[in-house]
Amino acid sequence: MKQLQFLIIALFLSITSANSFETKQEEITFLKQEILALAYSFEGQADIDGSKQEEIEVKIQELLLLVPRLSFQDRAVKAIGAWRQVWGPYAFDDSQTVPDRIDVKNIYQVIKPEGYYYNFAQYNFGNRLIRSFLRGNFEIRDDRIAVEFNRTGLILGNSDTPMPGLVDGLENRTVRAVRFPDFLPPSGIRGGLIEIYADDEIRLNYGTVGDNLDNPALFVMERWK
After folding, report:
1. 102, 120 in Cβ contact below 8 A?
2. pLDDT at position 3
3. What integer best gives the mean pLDDT of the chain?
4. What is the DSSP string of 34-62?
5. Taking each helix axis from N to C terminus, what angle separates 2-41 and 51-64, rounded to the nearest 10 degrees?
6. Contacts of 175 (CB under 8 A, 6+ apart)
7. Each residue of 128-153: pLDDT tens digit?
8. pLDDT of 63-77, one tens digit each?
9. Is the pLDDT of residue 210 over 90?
10. What is the pLDDT of residue 63?
């Protein structure tokens, strides 16, 4: 009889644990959807007073209470891959501006495990597209992914290829591009990426220009596949 009681209790605890896990996963999924919905509602908009970032951060804090706590290095590794920016700063400098003609639906970042990454942006001029790239090297530190931009330019042709698919060609110079001189900014500018959360669908991180981590700008991204 005692053995039967033990089995019943064990079964009950197992079912309760499974239901709890399922509920938690549903809450995580719902919060991610809320974060993305907010980001999409802000798409193409600057955040002069910081209110948009603050609104999203409320949901991010709720999400972080539910997901496993990882070291920064582990969070940084999860950021490797290709991402499309849903919302965040649209200029490569520290300004809260939206560059003229930028296509806010075609901004990407590709982080390669070899220690370099690319930012891509597309600009629409009527029927003509201009696509730019900004390359940088990075190093994962205890509190940030430290980056330094070292190459920038414009992509020539290849308009049918999504920009994240051009990284290898830009690296081995099989993709035609105009490469600007290394002494021109933003080449030589340093910054940091502070990774908050990433999985197979969404990435949340802060970006800074220079070594100052105060008042970083939030980015909400979707994994590009």
Report:
1. no
2. 63
3. 89
4. HHHHHHHHTTT---TTSHHHHHHHHHHHH
5. 170
6. 155, 158, 166, 169
7. 889 999 999 999 999 999 999 999 99
8. 999 999 999 999 999
9. no
10. 97
Contact 145, 76 (CB under 8 A): yes
Specify the residue for token string 């070594």: 211
Look at residues 36, 54, 48, 43 and name the one whose alpha carbon lies nearest to residue 197: 36
Q: Quick: pLDDT tens for 9-22.
A: 444 445 454 456 57
Closest CA to 147 of 67, 205, 98: 205
How far is residue 36's CA from residue 3's CA, in Å, rounded to a whole number? Answer: 49
Cα separation, 183 vs 14, whole angstroms = 62
Q: Answer for the pair 45, 98: CB distance below 8 angstroms, yes or no.
A: yes
Domains recognised in the chain with CATH numbers: 2-223 (2.40.128.280)
Q: What token pair was written down for 57?
A: 């951060």
